[in-house]
Design goal:
By secondary structure, the protein is an all-alpha fold. It has a domain of 128 residues. It is 94% helix and 0% strand. It is rod-shaped.
Length: 186
């Protein structure tokens, strides 16, 4: 594997990690936005419930003051209390619904945290893999450089040997035939 291929692989790995992180962040952001919307709705409903409860408390205070005043007011008070009791029933029902919504939100949040934990583990694994890949690349480059050094040394030896042979051949060719080959019959 060449250095360029390793660099391209590293870049591709980084892009994949960045893509996975971006996708996870997008999903988490959407879930959090959804949860915030639901929580805002619950808060508005709770504010309305509190306002109604404040109104009910104020009415009850007025009813108690009137109750002491007369029997006639007592029947009138009973007529006023009935709708309040019905409102309280509705408020209790709304409270149960809100508790259910809160439980759903907590479940969604737990799932989001679980997903985030999984993404974090995968990112850590990818980072460890990237570090190992970079370490392997450095070792491979060192081995390649060592091999290049050995090849250069061998080429230098071969070049020296060829130059020596070339010099000997030049000397041999420049000698007359009798001196170069004294035992030949030419």
């Amino acid at each position: 594997m060449t250095n360029e291929e390793l660099t391209a692989l590293r870049v591709l790995l980084r892009e994949e990690v960045n893509s996975a992180v971006y996708a996870s962040e997008s999903r988490l952001s959407q879930k959090i936005d959804h949860l915030e919307g639901r929580i805002d709705g619950l808060e508005r409903r709770l504010d309305g419930v509190e306002q109604r409860l404040d109104g009910v408390e104020q009415r009850l205070d007025g009813v108690e003051q009137r109750f002491d005043g007369s029997e006639h007011r007592m029947s009138r008070l009973e007529d006023m209390v009935r709708p309040m009791a019905e409102h309280l029933i509705l408020l209790r029902s709304a409270q149960r619904q809100m508790q259910s919504d809160i439980a759903t939100i907590q479940n969604d949040l737990t799932q989001s945290l679980s997903i985030l934990d999984g993404v974090t583990v995968r990112i850590n694994e990818l980072q460890v893999g990237q570090h190992e890949l970079e370490a392997n690349q450095r070792r491979f480059q060192a081995r390649v450089e060592d091999q290049f050094t050995l090849i250069r040394r061998d080429i230098q030896k071969l070049s020296t040997t060829v130059q020596g042979l070339s010099t000997r051949l030049d000397r041999h060719e420049s000698l007359p035939v009798q001196q170069a080959h004294p035992n030949s019959a030419a």
